[in-house]
Q: What sequence folds into this?
């Protein structure tokens, strides 16, 4: 994929800042995501990834800078932005006693032209679990429900925070297939991730954050070249000077 | 302003119309909330069982001597107490702990990134909660009428009005609990203290006559005591004391103001 094929940005972030008491969690972050592009947001724990996407989602008000989603400000134009933006939150809890079907019914009812049920279930491969209560599902299945709900309103922009953290290899691959389906539909995606294999596979470009600032940005290949390493994983370690966080090793 | 060129050109799409989920969505949410309650029946047993239990324990000992126009002590004192208790329990204890759980678990946060306003969740909660109150009070009334031959209030309209006002006041007080409680268990703790405190001062444990005068006086002006007094008066066909109504209205207003000032969705 070429990097210059995305001309009109779907998401534009300029000079974003967020302060928690004395700590500058996000400091002068600028990034832009072209329509239909998938941008990976990488960084160690505490690098400011989640805070950044929460400001893009309109959940937190920036202390400085600006956010534009499809030309709109998420805090000022909240109602409109929510029509085009789908969000899967890290640790997104739901009404546990409801079934997958009931949750989909609820979330679909929020939008004027929701995506049909069967399509949503199909997309996240959960058709067989439709009548199961959310609280009875496995971690991977819950995550897929969460993604299905984020897709209920046919979003043009999708924020996925820690999409596959804690999932087994089979569940991760299944999730990746769903994301690739969305990419082929032209959905713009912001993907917060720790998993370098996931980022290499799914992202057109990445932004590497450290200490709330943008360390580097480019295609995965460009970032690897810049670091002079063999893999993206090595590049991450070389550029941040840190070990990969929270990567569980199954032996 | 209309001549300004549109700033966004992402895929040259038109701006979406602002859309707020409507009544249909609210009904679906009410149904979802009701399912949550029914599927965790432990929460339902208390609002339904408690009034019945109070009724059974106090009704048998209440005097059957007619006091006013065929109404006994059971009608005039026990029934108002039972109803106000149900409302206080659900409003001050039950509803806030549900909301605190929603906040803690991130359900409100998840809804905040959809077009649904979290306010809709609140309205749905209150509706479901009112349904529980109606069920609890209805059940207690039915048993009271069939088993204990309880007679309806002489001023039925006034009684219903007082009941509605009392419910609003208790939910409003509960909203303060929901607003300030950081965790579900804190909500239960604060709600329990609120319920027992209001109840004790309002005559839940053997009538306000047993309390020292100043304490009884305070209790009469708090929503529990005021609610019981107002309902008693309506039952007896007397005019409802303005002071009681004022207390209920004041609770309603203060509760809303404080809760709105302090409320957090996260």
A:
């Amino acid at each position: 994929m070429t990097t210059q094929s995305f001309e009109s940005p779907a998401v534009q972030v300029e000079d974003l800042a967020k302060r928690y008491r004395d700590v500058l969690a996000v400091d002068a972050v600028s990034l832009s995501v072209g329509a239909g592009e998938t941008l990976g947001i990488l960084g160690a724990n505490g690098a400011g990834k989640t805070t950044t996407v929460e400001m893009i989602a309109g959940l937190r008000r920036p202390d400085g800078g600006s956010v534009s989603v499809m030309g709109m400000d998420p805090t000022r134009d909240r109602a409109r932005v929510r029509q085009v933006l789908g969000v899967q939150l890290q640790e997104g809890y739901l009404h546990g006693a409801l079934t997958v079907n009931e949750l989909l019914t609820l979330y679909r009812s929020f939008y004027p032209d929701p995506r049909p049920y069967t399509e949503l279930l199909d997309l996240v491969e959960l058709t067989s679990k439709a009548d199961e209560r959310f609280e009875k599902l496995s971690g991977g299945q819950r995550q897929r429900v969460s993604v299905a709900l984020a897709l209920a309103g046919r979003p043009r922009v999708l924020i996925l925070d820690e999409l596959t953290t804690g999932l087994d290899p089979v569940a991760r691959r299944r999730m990746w297939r769903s994301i690739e389906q969305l990419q082929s539909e032209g959905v713009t995606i912001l993907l917060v991730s720790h998993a370098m294999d996931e980022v290499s596979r799914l992202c057109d470009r990445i932004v590497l954050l450290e200490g709330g600032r943008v360390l580097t940005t480019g295609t995965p290949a460009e970032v690897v070249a810049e670091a002079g390493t063999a893999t993206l994983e090595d590049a991450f370690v070389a550029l941040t000077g840190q070990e990969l966080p929270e990567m569980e090793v199954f032996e | 302003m209309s001549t300004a060129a549109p700033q966004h050109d992402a895929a040259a799409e038109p701006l979406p119309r602002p859309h707020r989920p409507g009544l249909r969505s609210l009904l679906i949410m009410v149904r979802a909330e009701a399912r949550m309650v029914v599927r965790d029946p432990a929460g339902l047993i208390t609002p339904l069982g408690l009034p019945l239990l109070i009724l059974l324990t106090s009704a048998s000992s209440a005097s059957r001597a007619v006091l006013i126009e065929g109404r006994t002590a059971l009608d005039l004192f026990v029934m108002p107490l039972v109803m106000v208790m149900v409302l206080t329990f659900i409003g001050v204890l039950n509803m806030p702990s549900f909301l605190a759980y929603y906040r803690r678990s991130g359900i409100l946060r998840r809804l905040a990134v959809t077009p649904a306003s979290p306010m809709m969740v609140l309205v749905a909660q209150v509706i479901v909660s009112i349904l529980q109150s109606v069920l609890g009070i209805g059940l207690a009334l039915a048993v009271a009428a069939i088993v204990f031959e309880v007679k309806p209030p002489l001023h039925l309209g006034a009684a219903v009005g007082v009941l509605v006002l009392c419910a609003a006041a208790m939910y409003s007080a509960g909203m303060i609990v929901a607003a300030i409680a950081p965790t579900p268990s804190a909500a239960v703790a604060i709600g329990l203290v609120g319920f027992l405190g209001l109840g004790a001062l309002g005559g839940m444990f053997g009538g306000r006559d047993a309390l020292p005068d100043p304490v009884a006086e305070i209790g009469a002006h708090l929503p529990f005591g005021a609610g019981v007094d107002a309902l008693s008066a309506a039952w007896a066909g007397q005019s409802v004391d303005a002071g009681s109504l004022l207390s209920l209205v004041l609770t309603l207003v203060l509760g809303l103001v404080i809760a709105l000032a302090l409320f957090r969705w996260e």
The beta strands of chain B are 66-68, 71-72. Chain B touches chain A at residues 6-13, 15-21, 24-25, 28-29, 32, 35-36, 39-40, 105-107, 109-110, 112-116 (CB under 8 Å). Residues 73-105 of chain B form the longest helix (33 residues). Confidence is low (pLDDT under 50) at residues 1-11 of chain B.
